[in-house]
Design brief:
This protein has 256 residues and is an alpha/beta fold. The protein has a single domain, classed as Glycoside hydrolase/deacetylase (TIM Barrel), CATH 3.20.20.370. The protein is built from nine helices and ten strands. The strands form two sheets. Strands 3, 4, 5, 8, 9 and 10 form a six-stranded parallel beta sheet that branches. A four-stranded mixed beta sheet has the order 1-2-7-6. α2 runs parallel beside α8. It is globular and about 45 Å long. The termini are far apart. The relative contact order is 0.21.
Amino acid sequence: MPIAFFLLMVASRLQNRLVPQNTAPKSGNPSYDRSLALLRRGNPALKEVALTIDDGPHVKYVPKILQVLREDRIHATFFVVGKKVQEHPEIVREMLADGNEVGNHSMTHPRFITLKPDGVRREISGCAKAVFKATGRKMTLVRPPGLRYTDDILKIDKSMHYITVEENIAVGDFIVVGDRTWYRDSPKFAGHVATIKHNVFKQLKNGAIIVLHDMPATADALHDIITGIHQRGYQIVTVSQMLAHLPGSGGRIPKV
């Protein structure tokens, strides 16, 4: 078990350090690029942040996440994977019934930069169909897996009437080694939970988009994350609310 936990931590750190920069331009509006329908951050004049939760629904972990959100009266934006939606459509219905919103995170979670344009479209449309079948809802937000994208990928997203959502607070909660339940028994589990919380709080800023993952340590950290954000004077909003609060938006979500 110690060897497995070591591999877990190495993988998590490599994920944070080795993710290449996106090739999309960073000039223009620092919050929202209308030409590419890309949300980089919320309104820098407002003390609000968005909680986004990627890669689910995982039936082992998301029930606790949803319970915490309900008890704390907070809504999050879940970027879901179509294949997992097909496995547990009832969870996605529960997400929406609780007032959360759901965004597109592809059908099978490949890196879009490895696909041809038609492959990107299939991944997006496959997830859209899975969510629509489960809920009768259409999505308007997309996040490419791993946030690996190019201008051409953003243009595909926009052509399919999606706003692409970036992040600017990553916390190192993603685990890639085997079954993610075993490490609850590790003496280092509590330290991982504490690190997730610390990584959120040290990066808080106006308009931050926090990316979390549907993981056991994240579920354990979530209540304290929400409490700490509020104690620091920030409000928590959904991505759609954040879009409606952008400068010059007039309280409306930008049209794509």
